[in-house]
Design a protein that fits this description.
By secondary structure, the chain is mainly α. The protein has a domain at about 25-65. The chain contains 3 helices and no strands. The longest helix is centred in the C-terminal third of the chain and has 20 residues, at about 40-60.
């Protein structure tokens, strides 16, 4: 039978692994900057900026009723 102490240690290790693995956030500015460098178009970069900002907002606050 597992003791309380054993369970606590095991859970801490599991949560540390979950925190370290995972995708990093892509900021809207970084996404627009990459698009601008690839295409050279300010319009596409502006569109990418708005799209990525909306994705990040959805990730933080849930679904939003409006679309671009």
């Amino acid at each position: 039978m597992a003791t309380k102490r054993y369970k606590r240690k095991r859970t801490q290790k599991r949560t540390q692994k979950r925190r370290s693995s995972g995708k990093k956030w892509v900021t809207a500015f970084d996404a627009a900057n990459v698009t601008l460098q690839k295409t050279g178009s300010y319009e596409k970069a502006k569109s990418t900026l708005k799209t990525q900002a909306l994705r990040n907002a959805r990730r933080l606050f849930g679904s939003i009723g409006e679309r671009l």
